[in-house]
Amino acid sequence: KEAKLWGGRFEDGVTDAVERFTESISYDKQLYKHDIMGSKAHATMLAHQGLMSVSDRDRIIEGLDEIERRIENGKFNWRTDREDVHMNIEAALTDIIGEPAKKLHTARSRNDQVLTDFRLWCRDAIDNMITRIKNLQASLVHLSLKNEGLIVPGYTHLQRAQPVLLQHLLLAYVEELERDAGRLADCRARMNFCPLGACALAGTGLPIDRFMTSDALGFTAPLRNSIDAVSDRDFVLEFLSANAITAVHLSRLGEEWVLWASEEFGFITPSDSVSTGSSIMPQKKNPDPMELVRGKSARVIGDLVTLLTLCKGLPHAYNRDLQEDKEPVFDSVKTILGMLEVSAEFSQNITFNQERLQKALPAGHLDATTLADYLVKKAIPFRTSHDIVGRAVALCVSKKCQLQDLSLDELRSISTAFDEDVYEFLGVENAINKFSSYGSTGSACVASELNYWVTKLEIR
Ligand code: ARG
């Protein structure tokens, strides 16, 4: 067996079970690019500070390039006995270039190294996520543009409430996603500080330049406190919180579309390309992708809870527990990237069933609140007009008809404030046209809302 990089004070090696249990190479190899990037910046700084010769630096950088090539060509031998990505790469570097490799870990610990890698990895992940969020927003805006003027029932308590433009509902998701992207951007800015040079926990007496490595790696500045630098994972907690919120938003989109694709609603038809069938029921066509978007949100929430629980009560500074921080982050990012991608594809592959919606809309007295506002315009106090319209609705329920079917005499038998012009307020089309407050579902408001997003997202 090969001696461990840390093996000097040990007489015996670890048992196989301990080796299997403590390794992280099986998943942290994903950090290789960022580990190599960090090592190059570190070696460059060490040479600049006179802690290594320029020729050693050059051999280290060449060796790291060679390792990166081998990894990318699938020719790198990842070894469990070398524990993690950091020691795999350092030991391989020693295999390839020999003695100069032994200078690379000067004024560095795996504790600051792993966090440098991880922050760089998360930074890239956030950039990818923001791109995917924008893409989903764009898909929803396209869907809005395709369905101009389409009215859908708006619900509260999942009971019919007021008519809304489909565009208005779709743009509600676009707003939520914008805040999701904003949370990630905020998190990225707070995350972008460099732990490298904090070493194990206390820093070093060697003349390193932490500002140089921080700059080289695109960080805003080095972290101010070496203990904080190696102990805290709040940047991950914040990242996973943002992901969990995004996942919750996507689960609501998933639920809405699953519901709308049902025979009972029948508002949308997903195309075959985003549907799946049943192994027993020949007639089935299921919206599985959006069900899984709904379902996978559980994992993303779970990943956050795992991390919160992991960090709770940990003493300063580094504890090996913290090695457990990576898998939930990898899982969260992979899951949510998939959720965003599939949600965008699904929205590009549904059609709204205009006929069905047309038939469905009259039910539920969606224009009742608009009618109450009509009476307010006739100087009736709102609470009174609410009561009057309530009685008109009760009449409709007993007659099994809509508000617009009531005659003027019938309406006037409830309140003499009703006039001939009342019919301009009844029916969903009329009702939609009456909305005019800022941010409302009125056609003009929605048109300017849509315009805002078309410009902001640079659509078309
Ligand atoms: N693989 C370890 C982790 O992810 C690297 C740091 C290990 N440090 C240590 N002192 N054992 O946390």
Automatic annotation (TrEMBL):
Pathway(s) the chain acts in: Amino-acid biosynthesis; L-arginine biosynthesis; L-arginine from L-ornithine and carbamoyl phosphate: step 3/3
Residue ranges occupied by any Fumarate lyase N-terminal domain in the UniProt entry: 8-302
GO biological process: L-arginine biosynthetic process via ornithine
Signal peptide boundaries: none
One cellular component term from this protein's GO annotations in UniProt: cytosol
A Pfam family recorded for this sequence: ASL_C2
Ranges of residues in domain Argininosuccinate lyase C-terminal: 366-433
Gene3D superfamilies: Fumarase/aspartase (C-terminal domain), Fumarase/aspartase (Central domain), Fumarase/aspartase (N-terminal domain)
Keyword Ribonucleoprotein: no
Coiled-coil residues: none
Alphabetical UniProt keywords: Amino-acid biosynthesis, Arginine biosynthesis, Lyase
E.C. number(s) listed in UniProt: 4.3.2.1
InterPro entries, per database record: Arg_succ_lyase_C, Argininosuccinate_lyase, Fumarase/histidase_N, Fumarate_lyase_CS, Fumarate_lyase_fam, Fumarate_lyase_N, L-Aspartase-like
Reaction equations catalysed: 2-(N(omega)-L-arginino)succinate = fumarate + L-arginine
EC category name: lyase
GO molecular function, one term: argininosuccinate lyase activity
Family: Belongs to the lyase 1 family. Argininosuccinate lyase subfamily.
UniProt-recorded name of the protein: argininosuccinate lyase
Organism: Acacia crassicarpa
Lineage: Eukaryota, Viridiplantae, Streptophyta, Embryophyta, Tracheophyta
